[in-house]
Amino acid sequence: MRDTQQSINETADKQVRTLEVVIVGAGFAGMYMLHRLRELGVSTRVYETGSGVGGTWYWNRYPGARCDVESMQYSYQFSDELQQEWEWPEKYSPQADILDYANHVADRFDLRRDIQFNTRIVSAIFNEKTKKWNIKTDDGEQILANFCVMATGCLSSTNLPKFKGLHVFKGKTYHTGQWPHETVDFDGMKVGVIGTGSSAIQSIPMFASQADQLYVFQRTPNYTIPARNAFLDPEEVKVIKADYSGLRARAKTKPSGYDLPIPTRAALETSSEDRLQEFESKWENGGVAFMASFKDLLFDKDANDTAAEFIRKKIRETVKDPKIANLLSPNNVIGCKRLCVDTGYWETFNRSNVSLIDVSNHPIETITENGLITDGREYLLDAIVFATGFDAMTGALLNIDIRGRSGLKLKDKWSGGPKTYLGLSTADFPNLFTITGPGSPSVLTNMLPSIEQHVEWISDCIMHMLTNGIKCIEATQDAEDDWVEHVNEVADLSLRSTCSSWYVGANIEGKARVFMPYIGGFPRYVEKCEKVVANNYEGFVTN
Ligand code: NA7
Fold first, then answer.
1. 3-class SS shares of the chain: helix, strand, coil, % to 5
2. Using 50, 70 and 90 to split pLDDT, how confident is the model at 15?
3. Beta bridge partner(s), residue 174
4. pTM above 0.90, yes or no
5. If we measure between CA atoms, which residue out of 83, 122, 51, 209 comes closest to residue 398?
């Protein structure tokens, strides 16, 4: 095996570190990649912009941040000891608990000694002669590596729209995706929240309980389901832990990689009485499982309308002011944008200190020294929270100057939308891997099993190369084209590709409109990845 020891070589005036594998990002993907490669004796190091591990859960510290996948499943399964020993307090974990878990994993597997924190990778350039990646950090360090693994996350590059006057505002500004580590107290303040996506829906009830006055600037209302979060029952946890592998195996047979019951009935073939009963029961259970009420909800607009109307009725029943209820009621496809999960969101609009401002027809004109203006009225604010989301799936990757063969920039290659083979690799960029990249199920699944599957596939591939003296692996153009075509074909079958969401890049000005994740489901995708390996890395050229 070559290069199993890290080494630092002196060159003319700079130190160049040589590694077998560079990993970018210390979220759940980068952490497991590091652990796995180290176990296999491969020299590797992680570079992380933040000062700690946890990725998404390191950055998204806003009040109310919580996972919408159940804790017992939103966790690693690679170590049975780990999953047996870790105690999740709540059904849906708050950000702080997930970050504690990430820190525990880092300590338990002694990961920190190979993670370089507070370091941003600014470029990764492939040298065709040496077949190495030349990687640079923001503090000028250079690394030469045979492989580069991008564990940069799907929702990690924040989107701050270019509001006019942004820099003149005298109050405090925050982005939910870059929330400060210090406690933020809005007590006695007039606060504006821009956006009503998942981050806003989780944080608005928290802000409302602190602020003197909360103004919510809404462009598009969203569907949300009560989480019905609760403390986990120790007896229930015992039962799960007694057969954790059974739960994990069942989850892998589900399209979402999440052990939820798969619906067998179609909404339109069910009597309206039974349909209502099913929606009520799913509503009472709470969470994203609501969309698993019927099998046709994401494939048939009429079926979808039945679920959408059920939610709109719930809004009308909850929100006292009919005008506000109407403004909060979405009229697009439910589940097209990612369904939100909340605790007390609509109820918050019954509070006297909360105002909903519709900016759908009157965009925010400008931010001023003392607030912002929409529809000709200035709202005076002490603080503004931008809950304006992310440049999802490609943003973090394209923030790095990545260049492959003949100096081809990834940014240019993907100007019409991301193109990958299996979301793992892209033609003309040899030995570059993406964990949960565009074109893989990623954000449409429980991220943890998807991350683990990618990490294991990539590390097996690297080991296969090292043991067989293979220096380079690269997706062929044909394999990539076929995969992209397949990703688009299956996307077109679902209503999910029909609306303006971050799944299609619609939230970012100038971004190509392409449905980015693979919607064919976890089992089908895994089968394809395994077939590729069984057929000697079919669709890749190796040399
Ligand atoms: P989202 O879901 O992308 O939500 C962003 C919100 O910000 C959304 O309501 C946007 O309205 C709003 N937005 C964006 N730009 C503007 C401008 N210029 N003016 C007014 N409003 C604006 O991001 P989140 O962070 O909430 O959630 C991302 C994912 O994290 C979520 O799906 C979960 O998976 C976890 P729009 O809908 O575009 O009209």
1. 35, 20, 45
2. confident
3. 385
4. yes
5. 122
Q: Over the stretch 404-440, which tens digit does the pLDDT of each residue have?
A: 999 999 999 999 999 999 999 999 999 999 999 999 9
Give 84: exposed, middle or buried? Use CB within 10 Å, 0-12, 13-18, 19+. Answer: exposed
379/366 Cα distance (integer angstroms): 11
Write the secondary structure of 443-507 as one string of H (helix), E (strand) and C (coil): HHCCHHHHHHHHHHHHHHHHHHHHHCCCCCEEECHHHHHHHHHHHHHHHHHCHHHHCCCHHHCCC
* Tens of pLDDT, residues 280-337: 999 999 999 999 999 999 999 999 999 999 999 999 999 999 999 999 999 999 999 9
User: What is the spatial distance between Cα 405 and Cα 403, in angstroms, rounded to a whole number?
Assistant: 7
Contacts of 152 (CB under 8 A, 6+ apart): 24, 25, 396, 397, 400, 434
For 526, the token pair is: 């895994």
Return d(Cα 27, Cα 50) in angstroms, integer: 10
Reduce the secondary structure of 213-251 to three states and give it as a string.
EEEEEECCCCCEEECCCCECCHHHHHHHHHCHHHHHHHH
Ligand 1 contacts CB of residue 508 (under 6 A): no
387 lines ligand 1 (CB under 6 A): yes
Residue 431: left (phi > 0), alpha (psi -120 to 50), or beta? left
Cα–Cα dist 34/396, whole Å:
19
Count of CB atoms situated within 10 Å of the CB of 526: 17
504 lines ligand 1 (CB under 6 A): no
- What does the alpha-carbon distance between residue 541 and residue 523 come to, in Å, rounded to a whole number? 25
User: Which spans in 113-225 are helix H?
Assistant: 198-208
Q: In angstroms, rounded to a whole number, what is the distance separating the alpha carbons of residues 299 and 286?
A: 22
Q: Which of 96, 134, 136, 95 is nearest to 116 (CA)?
A: 136
Q: Is the CB of 198 under 6 A from ligand 1?
A: yes
Q: Is 316 in the pocket of ligand 1 (CB under 6 A)?
A: no
What spacing in Å lies between the alpha carbon of 245 and ligand 1's midpoint? 36
Instruction: For residue 148, count other CB atoms closer than 10 A to its CB.
Output: 27
Per-residue pLDDT reduced to its tens digit, 211-232: 999 999 999 999 999 999 999 9
C-alpha atoms less than 13 angstroms from C-alpha of 321 in its C-beta half-sphere: 14
Q: Is 325 left (phi over 0), alpha (psi -120 to 50) or beta?
A: alpha
The values of phi and psi at residue 448, to 5°, are -65, -55
DSSP of 290-316, one letter per residue? GGGS-TTTTT-HHHHHHHHHHHHHHHH
Check whether 12 has a pLDDT greater than 50.
Answer: no
Q: Which helix (H) or strand (E) covers residue 39, if one does?
A: helix 28-39
